[in-house]
Amino acid sequence: MCEQICPVSAISFEADQEGFWYPSVNYDKCVQCGKCIGLCPPFSGVDKRLENDPSPKVFAAWSKDESLRLNSTSGAIYGELARYVFEHGGWVAGVVFDENFDAKHIVTNNQQDFDRLIRSKYFQSDTQDIYSQVRKLLEQGEFVLFSGTPCQNAALINFLGKRYDNLLSCDFICRGNLSPKAFRKYKQMLERDAGSKLKELHFKNKTKGWNTFGTRAVFENGKEYYQDRYSDLYVLAYVHHNLFLRPSCLKCKFKTLPRIADISFGDFWEVAQNVDPSLDDNKGTSVLMANNKKAMHFIEQIRDRLALYPTTVECVYEGNRCLFESAKRGEKRDIVFKNIDKYDFDVLIKKFTTPSRVKLLKNRIINGVKCLLRK
Ligand SMILES: Cc1cc2nc3c(=O)[nH]c(=O)nc-3n(C[C@H](O)[C@H](O)[C@H](O)COP(=O)(O)OP(=O)(O)OC[C@H]3O[C@@H](n4cnc5c(N)ncnc54)[C@H](O)[C@@H]3O)c2cc1C
């Protein structure tokens, strides 16, 4: 956002050793206007929050279109919204994999991009010049559906600097963003093992049910890969060991109410325990939050396409702590990043996350004693 707002193009982005982009200022060009810092959400906050409801309407929800739902990460609410916007001649700004499997924000009114736009790509997207492109379309009177992380939504709101009725913004409950470099290493490992280039990659794939948190990959030579959350090393590193997260995500400033975007999505983990057992059929149940009247208006437009059950923020939070809490810094995060260039992805993860034999023996003894005490 700061790169695009700078009046003299003095800001560019460079990746650090961990693979995260940071702004770099050319002080020979900089005219000290202060726009970059003045509009940067972590420094300046986000005005939009004032318009959103601190007590949003919350639903457990999913699309009634079984095929779309099975192809999406969660309950396919995003897919239903994007489809509605395309059908009505609007533009959709969201994240796709490009031909190298880099995650990029694009904006399109071409319905053929629909399948690329759905599904979460679990690492930081390159926003390119998306904020300028969205503003241009909004100024031309086009309708735009924007989706991204809460912080990307904050950047958009500050960049626009005014309210647009023809914008519908969406964010999601975010565990934190991962290093694109870590993802590239993971992809290299998958391609090495398959002996072929990656053709498709789906996180939280539902072939064996949503709750397995499976990762499915298809390769150009026809080989397929599927592993659940305990065996896929990337998901294991992300969810169980908190590796590869951007430092700013470990103290995220956007996990509060009111939310930043008009609509917020998420995974309704533990919906069976905390709301109603009938709401978990293992095909993906979403959290859907309407943060203002505009959001509710759009939810009404697609209401017939959704299964929708009112619930509360508290029920969401019970199963999804990421709503309000930043992920903890993984014990091995720093050492893993230090060694990221040295080892293949699998060697890296196993080397630093497999407990030592002594630790395993210790755990076995403790568990044995606990078991005896229970008996
Ligand atoms: C990095 C990341 C972390 C997440 N962490 C959590 C979490 O902790 N808890 C939780 O409940 N949900 C989390 N989600 C959201 C969750 O994965 C689902 O996207 C959400 O539940 C909506 O599902 P859906 O089926 O409606 O849409 P989907 O089919 O998942 O639609 C995906 C949407 O997310 C956008 N998107 C995809 N990848 C990215 C990316 N890298 N950066 C920005 N936007 C992207 C796409 O543009 C699209 O709008 C996370 C998503 C991402 C990308």
Description:
With 375 residues, the protein is of the alpha+beta class. The protein folds into three domains: 39 residues, Alpha-Beta Plaits; 217 residues, Aspartate Aminotransferase, domain 2 (3-Layer(aba) Sandwich); 102 residues, no CATH class. 35% of the residues lie in helices and 20% in strands. The protein contains 16 helices and 13 strands. The strands form three sheets. An eight-stranded mixed beta sheet has the order 5-4-6-7-11-12-3-13, with helices on both faces. Strands 8-9-10 form a three-stranded antiparallel beta sheet. Strands 1-2 form a two-stranded antiparallel ribbon. A hairpin with a 4-residue loop joins strand 9 and strand 10. The radius of gyration is 21 Å and the shape is globular. 38% of the residues are buried. The mean pLDDT is 95. Bound molecules: flavin-adenine dinucleotide. Flavin-adenine dinucleotide binds next to helix 5, strand 4 and strand 11. Flavin-adenine dinucleotide (FAD) binds next to helix 5, strand 4 and strand 11.
